[in-house]
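Task: sequence design from structure.
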């Protein structure tokens, strides 16, 4: 699907094909300028609203949209713009933080399974089960909190451990897809320079101070480790049924448009239809209509 300079296929990490994040631009804007991009986004929002209504009426599929990124990449604002074209009654957003004590009493996928969307609904996960192969891979000491038998020391968390964890994620997502969940995974690919500027904006603007945390700078210092973790996660878990999209995020307006068009295309591929009433029910509707149109109808 290509419209107004946005070729969404170029951002998809093909299943079985290894990617290198350094080969993906962070500041791509296609053939668009900002104003035309914003206008196109508004048009896409209208279509998304219609697709969502049909999704709810058909009640056969659910849609799970996952956002992952480095700090200040624009996840929150991207979600806000996608949500603005949807009916909030049919959409839920979950923002996953550090697991609670109760969550650590279960396997790492448990809390994410609880947050899955029902049929006919859209679920948006701001961070997700992928934190368990991203931040936990950069900080393997966090794995010890899970108290997994055989992994009571950091030096025991080896390549086989991560291989098994990727396999668990692939199996989890395949199970969801086999049962009607459409899965779209977005990595917002921001550059170190753009992240630095956004951190400075948070520091300089009193209205944005609350967004800044000193820990963000600590994690920024491990940029290369995080990029390696993202590459591994994308290469291991981008499948036909649950693809990853690497979204250039330096220009927020373009990231929002690209994400919205990818979601729109996913809806179009479902070929959703409103349910059709049986002939006997249609006959009843005609009778009800006549009754209501009668001069003495209440």
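Answer:
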């Amino acid at each position: 699907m290509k419209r107004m300079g946005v070729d969404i296929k170029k951002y998809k990490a093909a299943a079985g094909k290894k990617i290198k994040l350094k080969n993906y631009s962070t500041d791509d804007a296609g053939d668009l300028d900002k104003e035309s991009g914003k206008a196109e986004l508004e048009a896409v929002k209208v279509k998304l609203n219609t697709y969502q209504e049909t999704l709810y009426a058909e009640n056969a599929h659910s849609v799970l949209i996952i956002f992952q990124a480095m700090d200040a990449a624009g996840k929150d604002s991207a979600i806000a713009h996608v949500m603005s074209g949807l009916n909030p009654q049919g959409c839920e957003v979950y923002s996953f933080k550090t697991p609670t004590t109760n969550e650590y009493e279960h396997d790492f996928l448990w809390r994410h399974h609880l947050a899955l969307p029902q049929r006919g609904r859209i679920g948006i996960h701001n961070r997700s089960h992928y934190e368990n192969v991203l931040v936990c891979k950069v900080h393997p000491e966090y794995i010890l909190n899970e108290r997994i038998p055989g992994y009571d020391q950091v030096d025991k968390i080896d390549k086989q451990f991560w291989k098994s964890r990727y396999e668990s994620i692939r199996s989890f997502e395949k199970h969801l897809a086999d049962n009607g969940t459409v899965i779209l995974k977005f990595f917002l690919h921001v550059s170190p320079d753009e992240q630095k500027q956004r951190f400075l904006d948070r520091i300089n603007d009193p209205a944005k101070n609350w967004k800044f945390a000193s820990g963000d700078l600590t994690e920024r210092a491990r940029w290369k480790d995080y990029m390696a973790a993202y590459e591994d996660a994308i290469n291991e878990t981008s499948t036909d049924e649950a693809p990853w999209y690497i979204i250039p995020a330096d220009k927020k307006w373009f990231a929002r448009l690209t994400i919205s068009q990818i979601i729109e295309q996913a809806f179009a591929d479902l070929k959703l239809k409103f349910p059709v009433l049986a002939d006997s029910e249609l006959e009843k509707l005609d009778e009800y209509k006549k009754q209501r149109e009668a001069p003495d109808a209440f």
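Residues 170 and 237 are 6 Å apart (CA to CA).
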